[in-house]
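Thread: Newbie trying to understand structure tokens

Hi all, I'm a second-year student working on a class project, and my supervisor (Dr. K.) asked me to get a predicted structure for one chain before our next meeting. I've only ever worked with sequences, so writing a 3D structure as a token string is new to me. If someone could post the tokens and maybe explain what I'm looking at, I'd be very grateful. Here's the chain:
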Amino acid sequence: MALDAAKKQEIVKKFGRNENDTGSSEVQIALLSTRIAELTEHLKTFKKDHASRLGLLKLVGQRRRLMRYFKRTNRVAYDKLVADLGIRDNI
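---
Reply by user tm_fold:
Sure, no problem. This is what the structure looks like when written as tokens:
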């Protein structure tokens, strides 16, 4: 279920401040969003996979905390990130 290196590097290149930026809030939120989307598709097929469902809930909570922090610190970049990722702004 983890992202492969090429896909991760592509996300870092698109959302990072430079090509080696893996720790910024933008990159972390984008990586979590990609993993959440993949797990959601997995759970549509395997409805009884409760272990993955718990992992999904943890990822959603982690992304929510990061988004709350990012919205508080850099509102303009937060709005741009939410629009680029196509996720709701419900924080």
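A couple of things are worth pointing out once you decode it. Residues 32 and 59 are 7 Å apart (CA to CA). Residues 50-73 form the longest helix (24 residues). Feel free to ask follow-ups in this thread.
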